[in-house]
Amino acid sequence: MADTEKRLETESDIAKSNFLARMSHEMRTPLNAIIGMCTIAQTATDIDRINDCLIKINEASVHLLGMINDVLDLAKIEAGNFELTNAEFNLTKMLRKTADTLKFNLDAKRQKLVLDFDAGLPETIIADQQRLAQVLDNLLANAVKFTPPEGTVTFSVKKICEEGTICTLEIKVTDTGIGIPENAIKKLFTIFEQGDGSMARKYQGAGMGLMIASNIVRLMGGEIRVESEPGKGSAFSFEISLAQGIREPKEERTFEMHGNVPFVELEPKFAGKYLLLAEDVEINREIVLSLLEDTGIIIDCAENGLRALEKYREDPMKYNLILMDVHMPEMDGYEATRQIRALENELNAGSGESNSRRAGNSCHIPIIAMTANIFKDDVKNCLAAGMTDHLGKPIDLEQLMKVLDKFLLKKA
């Protein structure tokens, strides 16, 4: 028994060591691209060369962010703190959006993607959209990665049964790729392991994705199954039972065509609105100012929580919304929010006079946390301090716009 335990411990240590080596390589590779392309762009004079560098910097940054998110997910899984957040969303729209992210890699390898979505799928379901999309993205990306040029990947979603408001879906990703040996399949969902070391070296990857995907599906009440044979492709599938949502009218969006490329028109719809940005890092302030420069919103900046409190105290009725960083010198975002809420209580208990640009006569400004602290407990701490909502860093423009729409365009 002692020899067996010692052998297992040694195998575990070797697996962890190999995992850390892979992680070091996987993270340094995009970081090298970012640093290298920045150096090239700084010395380049040709605008096309600079733009090419920026495109590659963006691609490497997105890849690195994905790696960091996987490491954080892995840490939450090991600590037993990995949880789902369920909400209603459009199922088919999410499925197609996930498939669309593969287009570049599919085109590069001249592969064919077959979408086989059941016509009877519910329009909306209640689940954790981000986590379900994460599972699908991992399975599809692996299928593309391990399928040779001109191969085929099939993405199938079927409704198996329906009982009341609950429907059971079967989701399956099949490829014509290299396949997986039987003795390697059991390692696919094991932490710190990869199915085949030689394949890992050839195709890259840190070996976290399937393990995380497996845990997400298990939390949704399912189990990922694998059918594979070397040289004959693989099929990954799982079944999950989810509540169907309530069909609601969809908000119309205006599109314009520039050549053959559609885009959502950005209008100065926040003209006349005032925003207070509390952020101590100059480059982060610059990013927000640049992202919102065409929206018409007027932005004042505060370098720390104390200055944000002072600006708010000078004219409590001036601002329509505050974006509040959490970790700042002088006074952090939590304390600044608590003091702003205390000041609001004093004002609301006073004469009731208001010249607010916000609707209504009471003083209660939306305060949105804008922070790299993205764990569930971090969000709870923000809400407990009196903040209204939470945005994670790096800032996603689409999510930022949704928050601004929600709080600046709401009807009185």
How many domain units?
3
Shape annotation: globular
User: How widely separated are the two ends?
Assistant: 71 Å
CATH topology of the largest domain: Heat Shock Protein 90
Write the CATH architecture name of the largest domain: 2-Layer Sandwich
The chain-level mean pLDDT equals 82
Low-confidence segments, given as residue ranges, are 195-206, 249-266, 352-360
Number of strands: 14
Helix residue percentage: 40-55%
Order of helices and strands: HHEHHEEHEEHHHEEEEEHEHEHEHEH
Kindly provide the radius of gyration, computed on alpha-carbon positions and rounded to a whole number of angstroms: 25 Å
Give the biggest sheet: 7 strands, mixed
Oligomer: single chain
Could you state the CATH homologous superfamily of the largest domain? Answer: Histidine kinase-like ATPase, C-terminal domain
What is the CATH C level class of the largest domain, in words? Alpha Beta
Question: What is the count of helical runs?
Answer: 13
Beta-strand residue fraction: 15-25%
Secondary-structure-based class equals: alpha/beta
